[in-house]
């Protein structure tokens, strides 16, 4: 590719705050030293050349600002950066056990999935990656945290793309850069944050897109989840194929009914089971309480719970609540204790059936 430098326009003040030709040269240098694909580099060079011609004739439009923003996005994307995977199944099991109580069958399926990925990574002639995992269950049943555990096990970045209420496919695919205030979609934005082209991408609540947008959004999902297509995913703003084949896609859904048959065909459904009261007590006592103690920063010796109180914590109003609501309840109890501790009303307290109402939040 020939080296180019742009002349400073004669009809512009060289001492001007913005020396546009000089700035254009800086953009050109950024592109030259980046990992942008060669064909795209040539296209961007032509854009910059056209802008410089306009500047030489004293024409300055918003096009320079748009192109500067465009180049900034291009050079910041991880076109060739791949993080190294860790396929230690023993460590993966430790992480799964640390983050999830019970659910042994689901943990085994996740370990099987990681085993296949490990084998595929060692094979030069490996076929397309297996079906995408989709965790289906009620809110608070641990769907999202399983995706987090998989990313932690592999040592990959986790990108969470919230699909709930998504009203346009452009939120995923971006807008053409010719549009005013155009910007990339959520996929490209996430890749920039991750700084690697192979993150774990969590498509959260894919069944909850806004009414009327389902067909468009599902069309983009097909492109993302299909290994025969996602090696050349095109964001409308970037306007050049980006290889997503090395990324791992994981989906969650509250129910399967809102998904098209074509999307379902590319998913491996994992149904999250209902927890029994005994399960919820163990989760609340052994997982949620330590997490919330750390979050609230309340010393452990300040508060303790009577063993017989946990059934009332998981059913604070006498009826069933989900895991997320149990966590909010525990957080509310600790906050009330923290307030009394800070203002000197207590040094330590044991939550029992007699004083539970004093600490139980009212929501």
UniProtKB/TrEMBL annotation:
Matching Gene3D superfamilies: 1.10.8.60, P-loop containing nucleotide triphosphate hydrolases (3.40.50.300)
Transmembrane segments annotated in the record for this chain: none
Residues in AAA+ ATPase domain copies: 129-277
SUPFAM superfamilies attached to this UniProt entry: P-loop containing nucleoside triphosphate hydrolases
Domain of life where this protein originates: Bacteria
UniProt GO BP: protein quality control for misfolded or incompletely synthesized proteins
GO molecular function term, any single one: ATP binding
Descriptive protein name: AAA+ ATPase domain-containing protein
């Amino acid at each position: 590719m020939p080296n180019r430098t742009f002349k400073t326009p004669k009809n512009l003040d060289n001492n001007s705050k913005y020396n546009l030709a000089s700035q254009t040269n800086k953009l050109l240098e950024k592109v030259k030293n980046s990992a942008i694909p060669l064909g795209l580099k040539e296209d961007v060079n032509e854009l910059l050349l056209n802008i410089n011609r306009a500047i030489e004739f004293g024409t300055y439009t918003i096009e320079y600002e748009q192109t500067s923003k465009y180049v900034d996005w291009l050079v910041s994307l991880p076109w060739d950066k791949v993080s190294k995977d860790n396929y230690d199944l023993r460590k993966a099991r430790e992480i799964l056990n640390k983050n999830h109580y019970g659910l042994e069958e689901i943990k085994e399926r996740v370990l099987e999935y990681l085993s296949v990925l490990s084998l595929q990574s060692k094979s030069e002639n490996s076929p397309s990656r297996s079906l995408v995992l989709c965790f289906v269950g009620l809110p608070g049943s641990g769907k999202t945290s399983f995706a987090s555990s998989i990313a932690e096990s592999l040592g990959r970045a986790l990108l969470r793309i919230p699909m709930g209420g998504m009203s346009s496919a452009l939120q995923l695919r971006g807008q053409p850069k010719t549009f005013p205030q155009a910007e990339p979609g959520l996929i490209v934005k996430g890749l920039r944050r991750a700084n690697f082209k192979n993150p774990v991408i969590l498509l959260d609540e894919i069944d909850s897109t806004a009414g009327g947008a389902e067909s468009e959004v599902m069309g983009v999902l097909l492109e993302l989840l299909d290994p025969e297509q996602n090696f050349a995913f095109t964001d409308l703003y970037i306007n050049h194929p980006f290889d997503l084949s090395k990324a791992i896609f994981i989906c969650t859904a509250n129910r399967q009914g809102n998904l098209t048959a074509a999307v379902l065909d590319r998913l491996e459904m994992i149904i999250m089971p209902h927890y029994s009261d005994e399960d919820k007590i163990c989760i609340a006592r052994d997982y949620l309480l330590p997490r919330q103690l750390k979050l609230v920063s309340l010393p452990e010796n300040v508060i303790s719970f009577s063993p017989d109180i946990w059934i009332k914590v998981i059913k604070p109003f006498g009826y069933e609540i989900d895991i997320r609501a149990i966590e909010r309840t525990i957080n509310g109890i600790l906050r009330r204790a923290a307030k009394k501790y800070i203002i000197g009303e207590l040094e330590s307290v044991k939550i029992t059936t007699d004083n539970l109402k004093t600490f139980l939040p009212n929501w």
